[in-house]
Amino acid sequence: MSTDSARLAQIGTLRAQGYVVVPNFLTTERVRSLQGLARQELLARRVPLELEADLRYPGAPPSRSAAGGQTVRRLLDAYARNPEFAASISAPAIVAWMKAYFGEPVLMSRAHHNCLMTKHPDYGSLTGWHRDSRYWSFARDDLVSVWLALGPETTTNGALWFVPGSHAMEFSADQFDAQKFFRSDRADNAALLGTAQSPPLNAGDAVFFHSNTLHSAGLNRSDAVKFSLVSTYHARSNPPQAGSRSDSVPEVELG
Ligand SMILES: O=C(O)CCC(=O)C(=O)O
Prior knowledge:
Radius of gyration: 17 Å
Structural class: alpha+beta
Bound molecules: 2-oxoglutaric acid
Number of strands: 12
Helix content: 25-40%
């Protein structure tokens, strides 16, 4: 299959199920280099970063001063953090994919994702069911994120789970809690969550997923930190709403 037809097939899968796994998206050399940089960045602890204790998701330390309270969750602003991160998340293969999906020029948000996501065996938290669009403000809920696995991701080390087709479903406000997590204690929600899938990823695989796709992720029960490079894209005709957090940082024009 040519690159163009493979991309169109991937876009078709994303449109149908809300996410698509693209195996071997990064070369082995690129993964090795990004992994090394990721470890350096974690050791250096340069700001901006987000700590598990700030989020307080299940499994996180209760405060910054508690045991494990300095555990990093996200090394933010991947785009400015290192030129190789910037090159990887604005790579021609991603731009071509997004232009084919949106059918127009695309931008990368620097306000959302744009991070090196870590998940630690100790003090790393799980993330409940949610739509990324819950706190994002754009003209339309039509953005696509790319999750680049820098190592294997499985249910053992806290891989993502997705609900197929949920990007296109209508939900009522009371199906979500006050923090806009999808409530798993409701029978209707639980039935839907029973259809969720956790695609295992190898180092260098990518998952493209829609901003309305319900997803979650578990705890890391392995003995190694998990690293993923995550970024988000939208069409030029779908700008962030003026004055919102989505509009708080200049975006990257990808043409
Ligand atoms: O790795 C995780 O816990 C999931 C992260 C996630 O879903 C998010 O940041 O939107």
